[in-house]
Design a protein that fits this description.
By secondary structure, this protein is an alpha/beta fold. The chain has nine helices and ten strands.
Length: about 270
């Protein structure tokens, strides 16, 4: 499967890695870590040098229970960093992690390559129109409610069947607007219990029915550290284990905090399938 990203056809025959760069003070793992230009540029340089294809910039925490920041604050956090990165690393493919259409538009105007929307367009009805207008790839994630309420909405008739129905409906709406370059994110940790997260991962390959590339974002999440009785800072080993399983289940993109370790997973996975 392929997507068109900034005029280049991107092939997912070899899985790709997306490095996370959080610009929020309250993200669950690295909130507040990158506060000045030097730290930001050093991290971008590290992410790209290690081999990540994409960098995902987020200025609104989406951890469980997170409060929504207003649009101006999100833009004030995001846009100066986006401009800084592209000024110093102009070839970088930057994904913007936002569910607000205004934020997406302002970022795309400044050179962002794609939009990563946790709500698949359900939290801002204008989002899909912006994606259609700019002809950029779109990551749509499965979630119920919003980050503040999502963990109160974990009862399903059948988790996988409900998710397939959800993505079928959202893909149909996207296609009706001419949006074809869509990536599916099953939303590990969003509107799902620990047990449901592992059921989802174990059956991730069932989402290939959508005929779209799959993104797996399990990096240092509570599904790992709560199971292992540790915390996010000690969840790298568990993350690596789940990243390999996600690749074996057909993930095309690994969204991670730790790019080097994820690239090693991809290399080993490729050797196993050579």
């Amino acid at each position: 499967m392929t997507i068109n990203c900034k005029g280049k056809l991107m092939d997912f025959t070899v899985p790709k890695v997306m490095g996370i760069l959080n610009l929020t003070p309250d993200s669950f793992y690295d909130g507040g870590k990158y506060k000045n230009e030097k730290d930001i540029l050093e991290q971008v340089d590290k992410i790209t040098a290690l081999g990540a294809t994409f960098i995902d910039l987020g200025a609104q925490s989406t951890r469980p229970g997170a409060h929504e920041v207003n649009t101006d604050e999100e833009l004030n956090r995001l846009l100066p960093v986006l401009e800084l990165v592209l000024r110093n690393f102009p070839e970088t493919l930057i994904s913007i992690d936002t569910f607000k259409a205004v934020v997406a538009k302002e970022a795309l105007d400044r050179g962002a390559a794609m939009i990563n929307d946790i709500s698949a367009g359900l939290l801002d009805e204008a989002m899909l129109d912006i994606i259609a207008e700019y002809h950029v790839p779109y990551i749509m994630m499965h979630m119920r409610g919003n980050p503040k309420t999502m963990q109160q909405q974990t009862i399903y008739d059948d988790l996988l069947q409900d998710m397939i129905h959800y993505f079928s409906e959202r893909l149909s709406v996207a296609r009706s607007k001419g949006i074809m370059d869509v990536i599916i994110d099953p939303g590990f940790g969003f509107s799902k219990t620990l047990e449901q997260n592992y059921k989802l991962l174990n059956h991730l390959d069932l989402l290939h029915v959508t005929d779209r590339p799959l993104l797996a974002g399990v990096s240092r999440k509570s599904m790992i550290y709560k199971l292992l009785g540790t915390d996010a800072h000690n969840a790298l080993n568990g993350t690596t284990a789940l990243n390999m399983l996600a690749l074996q289940k057909g993930a095309s993109i690994l969204r991670v905090h730790d790019v080097g370790e994820a690239m090693e997973c991809v290399k080993i996975y490729e050797q196993l399938n050579a």
